């Protein structure tokens, strides 16, 4: 009986190796767990549940087999796939989680986030994020033809690459004070998130007590996951693609 967490696979057609690593991870590891949490940026891009690419369908089939076999699946949005909707979640037998969400992990309240909202030093990004997360903007965007949305998505990805190149390293990491603030707001001693591509376990203090922040890794050359059990403290693990 264990629970797994992953994030930041950035699945896309041009990275067959990542999809293969994920399909293998499902069969080899996730199939034997109680629950799998995917904490955002599972897909490199998402422009609406009405787009059906071979990759999306292949992943949906694999996830549906997992959930049909009795594994509970939770999906949280990232900054790239925040338009994944209830339709896709229903198709795969998963449940969409809000960012942030507190879950009870075998008796320990654990705060789950994608992680981009913690990067408060990047003020420009936070403004941009607020706009894209605005339900009115999303409703307008989703009404546009698929071809228009594909173009916008491509432009946004190019813009983000250009912007990030000029940004200082520390701006793109979480703000330590913001981490403590959200952990105190939710009264938790444990946080799990992804997004920063800086996998690590950090010790800190929150609510006047020791606390821990677990950061998932992005799937580029390695499979990264966090494993937790009733008698097993969270462990950050990695394995090379094969
Ligand atoms: C981060 C910034 C983008 C600034 C959106 C479909 C949607 C992909 C996306 C991909 C890129 C946002 C969402 C990013 C920072 C930018 C542009 C400017 C000011 C769609 C597919 F919704 F339109 F369908 N993207 N990202 N910028 O990397 O988070 O910092 S991003
Ligand atoms: Mn992200």
Can you give a write-up of this model?
By secondary structure, this protein is an alpha/beta fold. It contains 7 helices and 11 strands. The protein has one domain (3-240): Purple Acid Phosphatase, chain A, domain 2, CATH 3.60.21. The strands form 2 sheets. A 6-stranded mixed β-sheet has the order 4-3-2-1-10-11, covered by helices on one side. Helix 2 links the parallel strand 2 (35-39) and strand 3 (72-76). Helix 1 (16-28) runs parallel beside helix 2. Bound molecules: ligand OKV and manganese (II) ion. Mn(2+) 1 binds at residues 8, 10, 41, 197. It is a peripheral membrane protein.
Provide a brief overview of the structure:
Helix content is 35%, strand content 26%. The protein is an alpha/beta fold and 242 residues long.
Give the SSE layout.
Blueprint: E1 3-6, H1 16-28, E2 35-39, H2 54-68, E3 72-76, H3 86-92, E4 95-97, E5 101-105, E6 108-112, H4 123-132, H5 135-143, H6 146-165, H7 176-185, E7 190-193, E8 200-206, E9 209-215, E10 222-229, E11 232-240
Parallel strand pairs: 1-2, 2-3, 3-4, 6-7, 7-9
Antiparallel strand pairs: 1-10, 5-6, 8-9, 10-11
- CATH arch. level architecture: 4-Layer Sandwich
Q: Beta fraction of the residues? A: 25-35%
Which CATH class is shown?
A: Alpha Beta
Low-confidence segments, given as residue ranges, are none
Over all CA atoms, what is the radius of gyration?
Answer: 18 Å
What is the third-level CATH name, the topology?
Purple Acid Phosphatase, chain A, domain 2
CATH superfamily: Metallo-dependent phosphatases
The total beta strand count reads 11
**What's the story with the biggest beta sheet?**
6 strands, mixed
**Any ligands, ions or cofactors bound here, and which?**
ligand OKV, manganese (II) ion
- Helices and strands, in N-to-C order? EHEHEHEEEHHHHEEEEE
Number of helices: 7
InterPro entries: Calcineurin-like_PHP, LpxH-like, Metallo-depent_PP-like, UDP-diacylglucosamine_Hdrlase
Pfam families: Metallophos (PF00149)
Cofactor: Mn(2+)
Subcellular location: Cell inner membrane
């Amino acid at each position: 009986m264990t629970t797994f967490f992953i994030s930041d696979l950035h699945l896309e057609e041009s990275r067959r190796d990542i999809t293969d690593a994920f399909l293998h991870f499902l069969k080899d590891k996730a199939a034997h767990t109680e629950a799998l949490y995917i904490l955002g940026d599972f897909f490199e891009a998402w422009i609406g549940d009405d787009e059906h690419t071979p990759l999306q369908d292949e992943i949906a089939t694999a996830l549906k087999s997992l959930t049909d076999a009795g594994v509970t699946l939770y999906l949280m949005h990232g900054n790239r796939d925040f338009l994944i909707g209830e339709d896709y979640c229903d198709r795969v037998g998963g449940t969409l989680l809000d960012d942030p969400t507190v879950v009870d992990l075998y008796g320990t309240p654990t705060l789950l986030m994608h992680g981009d909202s913690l990067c408060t030093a990047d003020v420009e990004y936070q403004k941009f994020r607020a706009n894209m997360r605005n339900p009115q903007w999303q409703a307008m965007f989703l009404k546009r033809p698929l071809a228009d949305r594909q173009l916008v998505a491509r432009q946004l990805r190019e813009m983000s690459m250009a912007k990030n190149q000029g940004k200082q390293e520390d701006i793109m990491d979480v703000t330590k004070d913001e981490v403590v603030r959200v952990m105190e707001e939710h009264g938790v001693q444990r946080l799990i998130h992804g997004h920063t591509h800086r996998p690590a376990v950090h010790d800190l203090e929150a609510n006047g007590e020791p606390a821990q922040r677990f950061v998932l890794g992005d799937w580029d050359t390695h499979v990264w996951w966090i494993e937790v059990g009733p008698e097993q403290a969270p462990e950050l693990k990695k394995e090379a693609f094969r």
